[in-house]
Amino acid sequence: MSGTAGPALLDPGEVMAAARALVSSGGRRLLGLVGSPGAGKSTMADALVRDLGEGAVVVPMDGFHLSDAELAVLGLGDRKGAPETFDRDGYVAMLRRLRQDTSVVVRAPRFDRELEAVVPDEIAVAPQVRLVVTEGNYLLHWPEVRPLLDEVWFLEVAQETSRVASLVARHQHFGRTPAAARAWVERSDEANARLVEAGRPLADRVVTPW
Fold first, then answer.
1. What are the average pLDDT values for consecutive 10-residue runs of the chain, which has 210 residues?
2. What residues make up the domain containing 129?
3. Do the domain assignments include residue 83?
4. Closest CA to 115 of 77, 80, 67
5. Scanning 113, 134, 176, 199, which has the fewest C-beta atoms within 10 Å of its C-beta?
């Protein structure tokens, strides 16, 4: 974990080598990627797994979204993506299983953005997997998550305006009008981004803009 000096900086060109070094330390390792919405967490996670091959898999925090029906009952439909709209206990239990149950296949859910719904048991983590990459907004916000991860990397962005623009475009791609997409980003995504940013000092490494 990070010392009092704060997180170490990790150049984008060093990312793959750092992941390989983590794997080489033996056993199964869990690597967390955290950053503001639109920072590129999913892109980096996928790149790491492609580089490491069958020995790595991504288990995103997004697989623990509460259903739209449950959010409606809770009155949280307009807050989807906020910390309280996830199955936090389920996510923590999954991380514990991934650390402990290394001799069996562990199945994890995946969030389908086209359906805006969780697909259960979509991700299989086989015993031979040596690196589980989990990415999400709140890995450093929920205190019980951090001890379950071997390292957490915080992804910085080069330009906030580009990050926001990519978020607006993402929401439009999945069906919102331009005005509705921008309103959602300004009201919800940016509030979540401020929570995420507060956890930066707790990260092991900060990946400089890539």
1. 71 94 94 90 94 95 95 90 95 98 97 90 97 96 97 84 70 77 71 87 88
2. 8-158+199-207
3. yes
4. 67
5. 113
